[in-house]
């Protein structure tokens, strides 16, 4: 097997592992929360608004790493459910801001309690291992984002001079 083929298989193995962890986390959440009629993405939107009330749709979408059109659908469903209220920005009456309703805060507390109970076993992993995983995730993000790619190109150019 060539070095290139070995590299390819190793990359697939790493990506598959990350996907499995992500899938397991979302499955655990969905499995626990399905009786609340709340999806993982909806919970994420509520959690963001709980920490950062009175933000607009585009800021909510940016924080959630989603497109505005996708987040708009999430917000519409949460508004219809009575969990989010749309209002006007106090300094710019043309801008809409989003806030949690009392029902939204209530469902957030219920979901957070259930969610934490479900994922808390992660903390049974030794802290130094968790710190290592988080550091590796940061490194992977840096290598796979434009900023990181530019740094990689720069260091490659520096070594070839």
From TrEMBL:
Domain HTH marR-type: 8-161
Keyword DNA-binding found: yes
Single GO molecular function: DNA binding
Source organism superkingdom: Bacteria
GO biological process: response to stress
Keywords tagged on the record: DNA-binding
Pfam family, one: MarR
SMART domains noted in UniProt: HTH_MARR
SUPFAM superfamilies associated with the record: Winged helix' DNA-binding domain
DNA-binding as UniProt keyword: yes
Protein name: Transcriptional regulator
Organism: Paenibacillus terrae
